[in-house]
Specification:
Layout: H1 2-21, E1 23-29, E2 33-41, E3 62-71, E4 75-76, E5 79-80, H2 83-101, E6 107-112, E7 118-127, H3 135-143, E8 154-166, E9 169-172, E10 182-193, H4 194-206, E11 210-216, H5 217-225, H6 228-233, E12 235-240, E13 245-251, E14 254-261, H7 265-276, H8 280-290, E15 303-305, H9 313-316, E16 319-321, H10 322-346, E17 356-360, H11 369-376, E18 381-383, H12 402-412, H13 438-443
Parallel strand pairs: 1-6, 6-11, 12-17, 17-18
Antiparallel strand pairs: 1-2, 2-3, 4-5, 7-10, 8-9, 8-10, 12-13, 13-14, 15-16
Helix pairs in contact: 2-4, 5-12, 7-8, 7-10, 10-11
Length: 444
């Protein structure tokens, strides 16, 4: 935990330094696209701006001055499958964004959508002896949380305090300065596959960039697509990407659960390609222009030309009804939603005061998805779009850019985490995170 603590603090320090210089880049590396946005901050961080506990601590004003997207290559299920192809795609996106912004960036904050994320709930408690809570007590109660067995090859990505209790009072967001005898803390720990994380870090380094932060795409989509009331009362964000579907649950403005389904919009495209025996690019076009999941009475009469340039006159003039296209797409979308429902059941989502579910991501734009989701996920479902950010191009304002916009918000005002506090060396937990940080020594 000591090594993880130092490395994460180093990344936070790099983020602050980049913000003081005025420019930092965010990099959303997904299965279907790679997006790079360059942020310009209005002035340096104020002294003490990061004091406090909460997602809005230390927020700064920023504007997007450069934006670029390119087709993702070498990615599968949100993880790197071909290092060189992914490196070229990242370089293309970053260089195009730098050209638009007319500036160079050396630090990026990246997101990871794969890695099979797993959530853990931790609890810690310390004795105060009737005095008031100091900043060191916040650090000590987090260090008192017992580390679970996360498994071999798993690495910690987020370690966020989600609740504080002082004696009989719970639900405190910032107990500093209050008097009490016992201080308790509930912390949410998110781990990912270490190999997937190491590959992403190494790929970014090969592009001559320094990593100033890492975050889960499921978490980022939630903070950009859920409104304040939904984050407060309890809601789930379903980020339907190309190769994976992220699931995150928020309560009291904190993420309390995250998971992913290794299915996404690219699998729907693949089903269309195999079912109609057409290339993948033409299948993607059919899905975008004519796809859907709810058939109507006129869909049998609406014929769609498949086209082609194979030289076979009969084959290139084939047509298919929209009802047949929907019949290919719907089973796969139902499978994705069924898997999401299973993840929400495992998280105890039905016990939250509000059961709002927000669908976002590129695959959420399939016509009729909200109606189908009502039958599988529950009655309170809506299609979400990310918050508007100053300077964000209109073409990047849709659900496909939810994680990219969330990464902008995370860069400006990240949620306080375990490594944001000064942890005394003698307070590291006995069952520490040392087993989970070998990759930092090898790859940092």
């Amino acid at each position: 935990m000591h090594d993880l603590y130092r490395t994460q603090r180093a990344m936070r320090a790099m983020r602050r330094a980049a913000m003081q210089r005025g420019v930092i880049a965010i990099l959303d590396v997904g299965t279907s696209k790679i997006a790079c946005l360059i942020l310009q901050f209005a002035g340096a961080d104020r002294p003490g701006a990061d004091d406090g506990i909460g997602s809005m601590a230390g927020q700064g004003a920023f504007r997007i001055i450069g934006a670029s997207t390119t087709r993702s290559r070498g990615m599968r299920f949100g993880e790197i499958d071909a290092m060189r192809e992914t490196e070229r795609a990242i370089r293309t996106a970053v260089q195009a964004a730098q050209k638009i912004a007319q500036t160079r960036v050396d630090h990026v904050i990246a997101t990871i959508s794969g890695g099979s994320p797993r959530s853990y709930g931790l609890a810690g408690e310390i004795d105060l002896g009737g005095r008031h809570v100091r900043d060191g007590d916040i650090a000590a109660v987090m260090a008192a949380c017992d580390m679970p067995e996360i498994g071999e090859g798993r690495e910690v990505l987020h370690a966020q305090p989600v609740n504080f209790a002082l004696d009989h009072r719970t639900g405190l967001s910032d107990p500093q300065g209050q008097f009490g005898n016992t201080l308790a803390c509930d912390m949410h720990l998110l781990t990912v596959n270490g190999t997937a994380l190491s590959n992403l870090l190494h790929c970014i380094k090969r592009c001559d960039l320094e990593v100033a932060g890492l975050a889960s795409s499921a978490y980022l989509s939630g903070i950009s697509s859920l409104v304040e009331d939904e984050q407060e009362l309890g809601a789930a964000c379903i980020d339907m990407g190309g190769g994976a579907t992220g699931v995150s649950v928020f309560m009291k403005r904190h993420m309390i659960y995250a998971d992913s389904v290794r299915l996404g919009g690219d699998h729907v495209t693949s089903d269309i390609s195999k079912g109609l025996k057409i290339p993948l690019d033409r299948a993607e076009r059919l899905k975008t222009l004519h796809g859907g999941v709810i058939a109507t009475s006129i869909d049998d009469r609406e014929m769609i030309a498949l086209g082609g340039d194979s030289g076979d006159w009969e084959r290139d003039r084939r047509k298919v009804s929209r009802a047949e296209l929907i019949g290919i797409m719907r089973p796969r979308v139902e499978e994705i939603l069924d898997e999401v429902r299973a993840r929400l059941d495992a998280a105890g989502f039905d016990h939250l005061p509000s059961k709002q579910i927000v669908l976002t991501g590129g695959a959420s734009q399939i016509p009729g998805l909200d109606s189908l989701a009502l039958r599988i996920l529950g009655p309170q479902v809506r299609i979400g779009r990310p918050l508007r950010v100053a300077g964000l191009p209109e073409k990047a304002a849709g659900g496909a850019f939810a994680s990219a916009v969330g990464l902008c918000l995370f860069a400006a005002h990240p949620q306080d985490e375990w490594w944001d506090f000064e942890i005394p060396a003698d307070r590291y937990p006995v069952r520490s995170l040392r087993r989970a940080v070998k990759w930092f020594k090898e790859n940092w």
